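Q: What would this complex look like in 3D?
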Amino acid sequence: MWLSLPGFGTLLLFGVLVLSAYTFAVAVMAGRGQARLLASARLGAYATSALILCGVLLLAYGFLTHDFRIRYVSRYSDRSMTTTYLLTALWGGQDGSLLWWSLLLAGYTSACVRWMQGRYRELQGYVIATLMVIVAFFAILMMFAANPFEQNMGGAQADGSGLNPLLQNYWMIIHPPMLYMGFVGCSVPFAFAVAALITGRLQNEWIVAVRKWMLVAFLFLSIGNVLGMAWAYEELGWGGFWAWDPVENAACLPWFTAAAYVHSTIIQERRNMFRVWNVVLIAVTFALTIFGTFLTRSGLIASVHSFAKSDIGPYFVWFLGLAIGAAAGLIVWRIPLLRTRAEVESVASREAMFVINNWALLGGMTFVLVSTTFPLFSEAFTGQEVTVGPPFYNKWMSVVGLAIFALMGLAPLFGWRKTSPSALRAAFRFPLAVAAATALVHFTLGARFGVPAIVPPSSVESGFGAQAFSAVSQFFPGLTVTLGAFNIAVIAQEFWRGTRARMSSTDKKGEPEGVLLALTRLVAKSRRRYGGYVVHLGVVGMFLGFVGTAWSVVDEVSLMPGATHHIAGYEVTYRGTRMCPGNPNCSAEEQATEGRRMLFADLDVKKAGRPYARMSPAKFMYQSPPQTTTEVALRRGPRSDLYIVLATADPQTKRATFNFHVNPFVSWIWVGLLILISGCLVSLWPEVGLEQRSAWRYGRAALAGATGIFLTILLSMSVSRPFGTGWMPGTSPADLASTTAESTAP
Amino acid sequence: MTLASKGLVLLTAVLALATGLALGLPIAVLVLAAGALCLVIALAWASLEQLGGSSDLSLDEALSLAAPTAAEEQKRAVLRTLKDLEYELAVGKITEADFRVASTHFRAEAKRLIAEADSSLSSRVELAEARVQKFLEGADLPAAAGAPKKGRKKAKAKAKSE
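A: Here is my prediction, written as structure tokens for the whole assembly.
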């Protein structure tokens, strides 16, 4: 008897469980590297990954052919959706996103198995076994609690319910997969940690190699979180990019510990210290990814992001308990092997700076974790659900953030073990001079340019402590800019000192190099170090974007057509509203739109007396599912963004109420991300010279990665013009972003 | 992955591209799914054959057995650390005295690891040499018998001169 598509899909999920269980058993039998069993386990891991891919492709086929027998397809798509959004719907809901998660895990598993070939033979079996346990967990979850192939009880529907309009945004095509890549990526270091603890092979070299995998996870977590900010900024229409929503918090928790780990492994490599700490960091990072997923998917804490309340919470709690229990048990068992005698010898040392940096990052993580889960605890202990809002987070996280920002600049100036006073003086001279000059200029001239160094808080709480904090916190904008300048000076100095040392050494060898050549070869030879500095530079860009919120100008104004409003150097004239399709002033694309009605309010903007832009914030009214969304009109700039939201509009009188936001330096967050990505790529670039045999392998991997990124960009570009006009070469994402947001000039 | 699996991946990609162009995206996706399923069967079959010992190791798998030992990998990490140390001395981040202390420690560690790696390999090298010798003696290669010996003599002479 032939199986239906939903039935066959469910069978595949069973197959994944069976195959992962088989691979787990063989991998455990392979133990410390028995060749034949290991080869069998490796093939089993590849087969499991291919089976998950088959499941995802089958679900994609269901979406593309509108197979509404499948409940998930009917819930998250309809016949009016474009191909791109049909494919996006794969991870638009709970069940499908778990399958997608499994696919990414399968990808990591295959990459890891491939990478391990010729390395770490003693660990391979247990690494594969651990990864298979995680795969099996997701298979169980899908089979018993969230089956993406489950059939509709009442049979196939004529049409589906459609994807949530808020998710029909190009950032949402890239943001969830990137974040999942970050979350799932933490599984590989965890698998290595478990394998090392089981085998007792706990020397330093494996943890250093695993650092690359954690760096990959860190990179994707950074991209995912920042793209989430971009989505919130453009789509939610409240003028900001980070609201400390529980799901946002859950996404940034592993970022803190991953960042702590990539720094503290350097200490282990160099000083053979913190071996227990590093293994704990790996385990905590993995546990936080599971906890974050649990928080997002259980519906335990209310959030704008979270999926519908479901039954999968207990499964996650059990798995989290298993992971923490197993890791803790193994660490306690191996404590005698992990202990070392080395100690921090001086506060004036790089390891001391890294330790403080680790504590600051862990402090930030703990603060966010406790604050996010506080409603649960308050309800459990007092019977009342007490939530903490964004001002609370902003207040305390600004302190933690500044501490991390300062340490980021300080650490590179110190040497290992202890730094002599003369070396410290030499290292600090230039960065301190730059920071002092920046502070002087900012404090004296900042206010004149609309970016004062001192910004009094908007509200002051009563009590001595709160008032004292307010008195101090008003200096935070100036302090952030000063620390930013300090960091940039440190990075520049590090590059210069390295280049100079290389030039001097090559001079002595009689093979002199110019500045550019020496710099290029320096970076090529020490990619990890200089890639790290480039990442720091990206973080500086992001901090500039964050501090810009201190100088934001916000105004809510109700205007009649023809009226003009002035805000922060912009002159905005309201021209009137139009409903599309139907209005003769609508463009051809707008007239051709199906599935929604769009109310635009047109505004002509002048800057410094010159025409600057036609901006058209809007309200979109969707038919399926019936929902109204606010579409922001956004004009980006390196100095500031003009961000306009249509709050209300009366179609009769044409009176409209607008929220105007002038947000300084927000674009630097996105620029900072690009710099951070480049830095991570420099750090991750393999040493092909040392591994000639694998050069082709890296070439193929690079080609596959580049193709993946290109296809993702193509996919996202194809919906930034929502009416099927397609991507046009030469159109930048930023242009397309503003086009979507503005949508409209007649 | 086996050669058959690699061929299957290539064939699926070509078929998917062709059907995608001729019949549209949904069919191409279905072809890819079918290809993935065939790959699962091929890989699972190969895995079972390995498990039962009824097939030889692939070249890739055999090469992977030459993975460096733990001591070898630790040695590489220590040598990298030594390189870093020299850089820090060059840019003035550590003093000569600190460099000497750290450098002595890491050099001693590197020596220990090199000795450990050599001793762990020596028994295997002897075993491999014995097996090669046995193979050559047992091989029925009268015409070419002299060639490898010459080659071996040449290699030995070269190794000595180096």
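A: To summarize the key features: Chain A touches chain B through 61 residues (CB under 8 Å). Residues 350-382 of chain A form the longest helix (33 residues).
Q: Very helpful, thank you.
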